[in-house]
Design goal:
GO biological process, one term: galactose catabolic process via UDP-galactose, Leloir pathway
GO cellular component, one term: cytoplasm
Family: Belongs to the galactose-1-phosphate uridylyltransferase type 1 family.
GO molecular function: UDP-glucose:hexose-1-phosphate uridylyltransferase activity; zinc ion binding
Oligomer: single chain
Distance between the termini: 51 Å
Number of strands: 16
Structural class: alpha+beta
CATH architecture of the largest domain: 2-Layer Sandwich
Shape: globular
Number of helices: 7
Radius of gyration: 21 Å
Order of helices and strands: EEEEEHEEHEEHHEEEHEEEEHH
InterPro entries: GalP_UDPtransf1 (IPR001937), GalP_UDPtransf1_His-AS (IPR019779), GalP_Utransf_C (IPR005850), GalP_Utransf_N (IPR005849), HIT-like_sf (IPR036265)
Number of domains: 2
Strand content: 15-25%
């Protein structure tokens, strides 16, 4: 099957969030997303750094045992590792810090300097069936795009530490970038995510996430497609109905429900689904984005309230591929953390790491009760802070 042009969704723009497009010294794209109540000028400083050569596009190699493609991106080996705040590459540029972002900002999105995919977006047309074919020594160029999403100009924090207004701006950036990236040639799937905490492997403390745009449908999504073929197109609707009827629900609004899944693998694992079939952020409504900014922030603040210190996690927003399964794969958050106690982490040992056969340490029902209680504590603390005038 040869790639067909992606079906372009009708993207609804929030006109209260302004966009300012720019280009970095080496030609990479930079987009500013301004809060509705921003005090920033729409005029942004140019990037006056000396232009440097962009990283070469990496090469993918196929694992013939699984058919999966592995991007060998050696340029990432020398990326910045936990720099001091004075040398934060995601902070606005200053006389002593020639960072990636020339001006002050609310939310900023730019092309990654050390990408796993790209900067070449399109190569010779690739047949998806050819990518699935198994062979020995097969290679392809790692075309695609990797972007960094800076949640705030502050040096430390996470999505949970944002104001509700700023959280909404980040979600708007996810939606618009999904819309734009899905239209690029060679892109098959778009994946927004946040890695939080050094225990997860984070190399920058600055509050940020990333968006990967892949030249293939990812292995996890291919497994999901197999499940849909076996079960039928109502899989997500039926999962949502089952979870909403359980005692594993964490939060439920008009448009979204968050829950600990029936077969949770991790000590802390929460999924969130929209109440209607939405393949990706680009096809959400403004009302859905508005509610998500409130519920998602509340969920993450609760995750941080489980213990006395912030919780490491991966917040993965699974989206339907660009060209296939748009009517049956639903946008879904899968948030996971290896933290199984105040001072203990779950490490993937033989069964999980080698065989993919998971053993849960906590029952999903007990985990849901713990997270619900933490979400309630965090909400009470936020309400108390608002009462005494302290920003939450």
């Amino acid at each position: 099957m040869t790639n067909s042009k992606p079906r372009l969704p009708h993207f609804v723009v929030d006109e209260t969030i302004a966009r300012q497009s720019s280009t970095l010294a080496d030609g990479r794209d930079l987009i500013y997303f301004d809060d509705p109540n921003t005090t920033l000028s729409p005029d942004r400083a140019p990037d006056l750094r000396e232009p440097s050569e962009r990283a070469t596009t990496a090469t993918m190699r196929q694992d013939p045992l699984t058919g999966e493609w592995v991007s060998i991106a050696a340029n990432r080996q020398n990326r910045v590792f936990l720099p001091p705040a004075t040398q934060d590459p995601l902070a606005p540029q200053s006389p002593g810090n020639a960072s990636e972002i020339p001006s002050n900002y609310d939310v900023a999105v730019f092309e990654n300097k050390s990408p796993s995919f790209g900067p070449l977006v399109a190569d010779a047309p690739t047949d998806l069936a050819d990518l699935d074919r198994i062979g020995i020594g097969r290679t392809r160029r790692s075309v695609g795009r990797c972007e960094v999403v800076c949640f705030s100009p502050e040096n430390e924090g996470s999505f949970a530490s944002l104001s509700a207004t700023r959280a909404r701006t980040v979600i708007e950036a996810w939606a618009e970038r999904t819309h734009v990236l899905s239209q690029l040639p060679g892109i098959e799937q778009v994946f927004p995510f946040e890695n939080r905490g050094e225990q997860i492997g984070v190399t920058l403390r600055h509050p940020h996430g990333q968006i990967y745009s892949y030249p293939y449908v990812t292995p996890r999504t291919q497994r999901l497609a197999d499940s849909l073929e076996s079960y039928g197109p109502t899989l997500f609707a039926d999962i949502l109905a089952s979870e909403q009827a359980s005692d594993r629900v964490i939060l439920r609004g008009e448009h979204w429900t968050a829950f600990v899944p029936f077969a949770a693998r991790w000590p802390i694992e929460v999924h969130m689904l929209p109440h209607r079939q939405v393949p990706d952020f680009a096809e959400t409504t403004l009302a859905e984005r508005d509610e998500l900014a409130v519920l998602y922030r509340r969920l993450l603040r609760g995750i941080d309230a489980i213990y006395s210190t912030p919780t490491p996690y991966i917040a993965a927003w699974h989206q339907a591929p660009v060209r296939v399964h748009r009517t049956d794969i639903r946008l879904m958050l899968q948030l996971t953390s290896p933290r199984r106690a105040e001072d203990k982490l779950k490490f993937l040992a033989g069964s999980e790491a080698a065989m993919g056969a998971w053993i849960g340490d906590v029952t999903p029902e007990d985990a849901a009760a713990t997270i619900r209680a933490a979400v309630a504590r965090a909400a009470e603390a936020d309400a108390a802070n608002e009462t005494d005038g302290t920003p939450s």
